[in-house]
Amino acid sequence: MTQEETSMTEAEPLGDTELEWGKEEGVPVKKRGCFLPTWLWGCGGGCLLAIILSIGGGIYCVGKVKNAIDPEAQWAKLDRILPFEERPGGLELMFGWSLGLEYYILMDVNTGYMVSVYYFDSGDAAEGREAFFNPEVEAGVMGVGERTDEELSTVLIGSRERPVMRFNQANVSFDFGGVDANTANSGYSAVVDITPEEDPGLVVVMFMAINGQEEVPDEDLVHFFDDFIID
């Protein structure tokens, strides 16, 4: 090998690829970056996730997301704001994040609802209530997309009447995830204020019917909380 060839070899950059064991040499496979389920970008917290990932990036992103999609870690955290004696059956905890705002996504395999749980501390509780329960707010959840057909009511859950806001959530204008992902994660929604009386913060549980269902009946809301300890 000539000196010129040696120099070229040493200077040749390594691309963002890696070889997988058992694959034919010379056929590189692209590394995956920060891995997130596609449907997350269409959900109500997609905007929040985009901001977090743009700030974190790289190794921080991968480490945080691995923890965020670890059900054992996230169920323990959820238990602190929406307590239960035994882990509720029929619920899959898909994602959880704590960065000022606490945010969890669950799938109810029995009803098909995507269920999002938000916890705002006392400093952000008033702003959270305004965003979720003011019928005149047209922006979608977390500022993503838009909501229409708002209807504010109350439902007896536990020992108290709870504020419930119903609306149609549309994410089709949200850039992340593409039109198909956002359309699939838009739908008729109901948001419940389930905050304990002694808590100065705000606990909100949002139900989104992503299966084409055009309503979230009161009985579905009541039944969901049967497995949780509420006042």
Describe this structure in words.
This protein has 231 residues and is of the alpha+beta class. The longest helix is centred in the first third of the chain and has 11 residues, at 46-56. The model is unreliable at 4-25, 27-48 and 51-55 (pLDDT under 50). It starts with a helix and ends in a 7-residue tail after the last helix. It is built from seven helices and nine strands; from the N terminus they run αββαααβββαββαββα. The strands form two sheets. The protein has a seven-stranded antiparallel sheet with strand order 3-4-5-9-8-7-6, sandwiched between helices. A two-stranded antiparallel ribbon has the order 1-2. It has helices at residues 3-11, 46-56, 58-68, 71-81, 125-133, 178-184, 218-224, and strands at 17-18, 29-30, 91-99, 101-108, 113-120, 146-157, 160-170, 187-193, 202-209. The protein has one domain. A hairpin with an 8-residue loop joins strand 8 (187-193) and strand 9. Helix content is 28%, strand content 29%.
Strand order of the largest sheet: 3-4-5-9-8-7-6
On the 0 to 100 scale, the average pLDDT is 74
User: Major sheet: size, sense and barrel closure?
Assistant: 7 strands, antiparallel
Strand residue percentage: 25-35%
Strand element count: 9
Tell the overall outline.
Answer: globular
State the share of residues found in helices, binned by percent: 25-40%
Write down the Rg.
22 Å
First and last CA, distance: 79 Å
Count structural domains: 1
pLDDT < 50 stretches = 4-25, 27-48, 51-55
Total DSSP helices: 7
Q: How would you spell out the order of helices and strands?
A: HEEHHHEEEHEEHEEH
- Structural class by secondary-structure content: alpha+beta
